């Protein structure tokens, strides 16, 4: 159960109780939610096995050829909500298309609760959230000056074969939100991953 589900459950329970009972029940829920929100950035170690397990389950529902290097896990407030997130880089052939050039590197965002359980946030993760401008194969992610960065190799189209990009790239990665207005006038938040390179 993630923080939002916990909050919804707490609201349902508290609204069904008399005021004094609701107060007595609310205190443990508030402590649980506070602990959940602090779990990632309170200096606790990052639970790599739990993150890998959650990521592998997620990847198995959307594609094949899952690969993950546990050095590609960082703690960073990627969605600018004031809370630290776990951002990971993994490799996946989304849709199991097959072939030597069908897979790509992808970003995922996870929450980690106070018990060290990891939960994918699909609304901020690829492939549901598109990525624009990135090289196909990213080698490493890291945080520098409070910004997510990556290193990769991109193609020098004047000489590189399709298997083997050779041009080094180091650039920032952003998770950005845009507003999309549909025909009936409603606005929707749309997330996307973006980068800025000189390639």
Work out the count of structural domains. 2
Coarse structural class: alpha+beta
Using only C-alpha atoms, the radius of gyration works out to 20 Å
Number-wise, the strands total: 9
Portion in strands: 35-45%
State the share of residues found in helices, binned by percent.
Answer: 10-25%
Strand order of the largest sheet: 5-9-8-7-6
Helical segment tally?
Answer: 3
- Uncertain spans: 28-39
Order of helices and strands: HHHEEEEEEEEE
What is the overall shape? globular
Question: What's the average pLDDT?
Answer: 81
Largest sheet: 5 strands, mixed
Distance between the termini: 42 Å
Describe the structure.
The protein is of the alpha+beta class. The chain has 2 domains: 3-38; 48-195, no CATH class. It is built from 3 helices and 9 strands, in the order αααβββββββββ. It has helices at 3-15, 19-38, 48-62, and strands at residues 63-76, 85-94, 104-112, 118-120, 131-132, 138-144, 147-154, 167-181, 187-195. It has a 5-stranded mixed β-sheet with strand order 5-9-8-7-6, with no helix packed on it. It has a 4-stranded antiparallel β-sheet with strand order 1-2-3-4, covered by helices on one side. A hairpin with a 2-residue loop joins β6 (138-144) and β7 (147-154). α1 (3-15) packs antiparallel against α2 (19-38). The longest helix has 20 residues, at 19-38. Mean pLDDT is 81; it is low at 28-39.
């Amino acid at each position: 159960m993630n923080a939002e589900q916990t909050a919804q459950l707490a609201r349902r329970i508290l609204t069904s109780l008399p005021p004094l009972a609701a107060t007595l029940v609310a205190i443990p829920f508030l402590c649980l939610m506070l602990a959940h929100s602090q779990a990632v950035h309170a200096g606790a170690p990052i639970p790599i096995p739990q993150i890998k397990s959650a990521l592998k389950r997620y990847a198995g529902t959307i594609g094949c050829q899952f690969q993950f290097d546990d050095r590609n896990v960082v703690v960073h407030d990627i969605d600018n909500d004031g809370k630290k997130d776990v951002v990971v880089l993994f490799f996946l052939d989304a849709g199991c298309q097959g072939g030597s050039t069908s897979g790509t590197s992808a970003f995922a965002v996870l929450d980690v609760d106070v018990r060290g359980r990891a939960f994918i946030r699909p609304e901020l993760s690829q492939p549901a959230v598109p990525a624009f401008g990135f090289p196909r194969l990213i080698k490493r992610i890291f945080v520098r000056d409070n910004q997510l960065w990556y290193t990769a190799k991109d193609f020098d189209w004047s000489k590189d074969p399709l298997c083997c990009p050779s041009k080094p790239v180091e650039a920032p990665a952003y998770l950005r939100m845009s507003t999309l207005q549909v025909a009936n006038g409603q606005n929707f938040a749309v997330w996307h991953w973006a980068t800025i390179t000189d390639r």
